[in-house]
Structure formats: structure tokens, C-alpha cells
């Protein structure tokens, strides 16, 4: 039965409004409990797990089931449009095409579904399940559930990502292995509590790494007898010991003490906690910096829906990608809500090392596909880098055994001052106008073994979107023999060196520039700056111009950055124009970037063929989500994912386009990167290009007048010996 639904003014919940007012955040009234793009709740995850577990044929099968991930099945775009038009505020019926007699809308949205990646520890099989979720309440009673299995299938010849529980069990197994204990004793270590075992996926180098076995090759480190509560154990790598662990049966299957390399001496500069650095003396001259928003923030929050400075979007989160940004749009005056992108996320990252020696040549981590960026996210309760008024979002996951875990304060939403937005002073009149820039930042931070990665999406008042990754944490080190040096890295302390390596990230951007759901009216243009040839059109030899080329097909759209020609790419709507008659668009502006420095036959490139180009463009296909395929762990197949999909050479001249932007940084370690690395930032911009008729930032109001330093008593006091003198 279908019924005609007409939007009405929502009725506020007075109690919710009152509670929100005390915190300074504007809460918009909610129409239903779960938007189709909301991440699965803890209760929904429990129902999905219970449904799959109950489907096991025998108790033995049910006991052997392990849960890699449970995520939302994202609905078709037309379902999202239906929800945003008539079921959820701010109610945007313009998202749906007009029909004669008015729209006929179903009285309910389709049931939400969960997708489960399940590993059978007994059979070493990986399967994918789809479970339909009916009405789910906050608590489920003693084994009863409301889920329905829609489909299940075994995926042959794959290994799913590793899990933290497996890593912990692997560490215990290795430390309890008698030959390992004997090898450590030779190095002067008998206290196994000092030993750190970091399991790494083995990758794929030969048939010995085939996914018929679930394998890990740990790296070993050792703390000292220090009483520092957070001693940097990565400062003493243990080299020369080869360990291979069968993670299915949790047994050591290969062990060899190949070379006795002395443990590096305890570096007095190895620690980074307060009072433990650079001789134990911390800086004492850093004065407090407070960000105060007495009227609260400028953003409004309704569940996972965000509104700020004409931007609106939804926040999601997955165990693999971490933060996901959905339904990005800009409210542009009388032109209304204008879509920019359907879905933005970081879908993969690869960290290849440049040392050909064992064990470093095997260090080629696929941190999203082998581990999961979201599953390794921090609770920002334990330390947050954000300042000002912050709205946090929790994230829910399943653990390996099917229990639900919650990362509280996982995603951070806040505003930042960002310097000058624009300024001009008329030299004739002396009159000046200046505006400060403010940006809205959505972020999360994860730890993968020794490294930390912060992933940020910044929204600006001038219509820009910036994607940024911040790299920090601790270097992955190797040990040196006395007097030894290696050209494949930097010696950073006695007996310690850090190999050269690269970090690559893949941003997947399902674009929708001025496209309503269901429309496929985008194309991608490459722009290169060209120097005009000398001649009658360039008599002064100063001429250059922007040359555009339409990327007509997938194979043509395999592109690399070129800073010499200021290369960038524009996603244009083929049917919408601005006031000058030009097609509206958003352009992708690269930041600093690189390509793999490994040889073309490097083994890790079998699984990471997508690193060979900085930009790939594909037409939207629901199943094409991960550039190296869904299961890169021990993947024996060459070029799975993007490199295979584009061989279809599908047309792109007018399509629902997806951009895959690959960006990276080459890290030649410095002594200044030790013991903990200062943040390095890389990323790119999405900038409006003919999208607006003029600058959207001209209507930003002036900021409150800052304190004039001339009238600041402290600023005018004379300085004696570097100290402000008391007058």
C-alpha cells in the first residue's frame, strides 16, 4: 500500500531542545530512528551476529564462527533520496523527480540490512552473509533475534583481515614457544613480559603464502627494565629470528634463529612521555591557549546529519574505512540544495618499505584491507587533538567472537579558525575589508602497530573541501651490527636504523556534481597549462593557457600528477551551466604526491596495481568498493580490483563517475623523527570551478574585532633578557 506523503513542519521535542541548549548545539527534530545511511547500532550488530550464529548447522559449526566485520548494506541511491525527501529532516522533496499528480511515496522505507564477513576457524573458509534487520530494540533477550538471512556464500581462495584478538593470541603463542625463549635468552632476555610480538600479514610472495593457510610473520621488539609506564619498546628491535605462525590453529609452524644480532643499547632519548624526554626536562614556557565559543558552535546536528555554513552531509563509519561522508551538498540561495558528492572515504592504504633485507622487504602493509582503519580507531577520551566546542560520535563494531564493542568519542566534529579568508584594502581611500576563514573539520585517528594516522575532511566557507591525512607515531626500526650502516635507511641512534619507505592512501569519491540521485550527468576533464609557441600569437613570449581534454573512457582516465603543467581534473555536470554559460563543476587539485619507487616487478605491486597511477575514474558500480579487491590479505591474484575493472574500458563522457585518487609521501627518516614523529600532512582539495556565479565567501560577516596590540599593556612592556619587565 502506498500513501501520499506531504512534508510538514517538524515538531520539536522540548526536552531534547532544552538539553541541547545547555551544551550549545542546535538539535533538529528527528522524524524516524534510523536513516538508511546511519551506521549499524550496537543492537543491530547483535541481531545480525545472532542470526548468522543461529544459522549454523551444528554446535561445532556455530562455535567455530568468527566475525571479521558487520557493516550496513548501503541502500540504492534512490532509497537514500526517498528518505531525505520525505522521511528525515530537513525534508528535501526536490531530490525526487517531479511526477504528474504529485509523488506517491511508500509508507515505509525498506528494512535495513547488515553484511557480515565471517571466518570459520575450523574449516578456514570465509563467507559473506546478508541479514535483513526488522525492528530492532536497544536490548535483545536471551538468544531471540529479529533478523532474516537473505543470502550467504563462501568466497574461495581468500583470507579476511586479521583481528586484534588474533594478534594478542599470536603474541602469547610465540612468547611461549620454547625455541623462541631460548633464542631470546641468547640475547640476554629471559623475562618474556619485556618482549613485544607484532604480527604482520605475510603478503604474497610465492605459493608458500597461498590463502589455503592463514599466516602471520611477526616482528619482535624488546623493552628494557625501565620503570617508564609507556616505554618505547620499538627502540629495541630483535633481528635474526624468523617466525611463521599458523593463525588458524595458532601454532608456530616455522622457526629459525638465523643470525645473532645484538640488541641495540637502551637509547636515553627513546621515550616520549612527559618528564621522560631529552634528559627529563619539558618546556615550561608554553602558555595556555583557549578556544572559546560562548554561544556554542555554528553547526547543527541531528543524529548523523550535519549542517554548517550552507554545507550539509551525513557521517558514517565502517570497520575498514573508518569515517565516511555521505550526501555532501551546498545550499545555494534560490538554487536550493546542490549535490556535490554521494560518498567520500579513504578505502585503502599501502606502506611499502625500501630495504631488500629480511624482514623489511616483507613490510608492505595494506592497513585498511589487512587490518581495518576503523577497527583500529582511537577513543578520543584518551587524548584529543581538537580544540574548541566538540561534538563526538561513537562507533560500534563486532569483535572476533561476535561481541559488540563501542569506541566512545571515535569521530570528532569541530570548527577551526583558519586564518584569512579574503582581504582587500583600497589604496586610494585607505578603506579595507577582511574576513577570517572558519572551517568545519570531521576526523578520526587510528593506530596500526607503530604508526598513527589521522584522517580529516575539512569544509570551508568558500565552497572548498579538503581531504588531509596526518602521519605520526613511531618509526619501524631495524637493528645494526656494531659498526654496520645501511644505505636503505637512516641511522638514528646507536645500533638503530629506520628504513626508507612510502605511505600511499586511496580516496574514493563517488561524485554527484549538481546531480540528483539517479542522474548520471557528470564527466571528467583533465586540465594542463600549456606554453604558447613563439609566433604571431605570442610575440612577447609570455603566453600560456589552460588546455582541456575530456577523459572519454576508463583506460584514458588512468592519469598521473604533473606539477610542471599544474595538472588538475574537473568533474563537470553536462547539463547545468553558470551565468556565463559554462558547465558547473568541482575540480580535484593535487597536493604533493609521488608514485611507487619499487621496481615494476615488486611482489607487493601484484596486490597493489592501483598504485601505478595517481588518478583512476570509473562509472559507479555498487560492488566496486576497494581498489585492491575486498581481500588483499595473502591475495595470489594479480591486479585484482581497479586494474581489472578498468579493462572493461567503460564510457565516461556522461556518467555517474567515481574518482579514485592515489596520493602518497616518501619518507626518508631523520633524526628529528625520533623517538616520535612530528606530524607530516598530505592531501588534496576539491574546489568549486564554475559551480557558483561568484565567490560564495563574500557574504561571510566580519569577525569580532581583535585586541589591538597598541593598547595591550603586556605587548608594550620592555623586554629585559627575554623576560617581560614589570613596570
UniProtKB/TrEMBL annotation:
Residues carrying 2',4',5'-topaquinone: 451
Family: Belongs to the copper/topaquinone oxidase family.
Cofactor(s) for this UniProt protein: Cu cation; Zn(2+)
Keywords of this entry: Copper, Disulfide bond, Manganese, Metal-binding, Oxidoreductase, Peroxisome, TPQ
Catalytic residues (positions): 367 (proton acceptor), 451 (schiff-base intermediate with substrate)
Enzyme class: oxidoreductase
Name of the gene encoding the protein in the UniProt record: LOC111317903
Localization: Peroxisome
Pfam families per UniProt: Cu_amine_oxid, Cu_amine_oxidN2, Cu_amine_oxidN3
Note accompanying the cofactor annotation: Contains 1 topaquinone per subunit.
Catalytic activity line of the entry: a primary methyl amine + O2 + H2O = an aldehyde + H2O2 + NH4(+)
Protein name, entry field: Amine oxidase
Residue ranges annotated for the Copper amine oxidase catalytic domain, each copy included: 289-697
EC numbers on record: 1.4.3.-
Organism, as annotated: Durio zibethinus
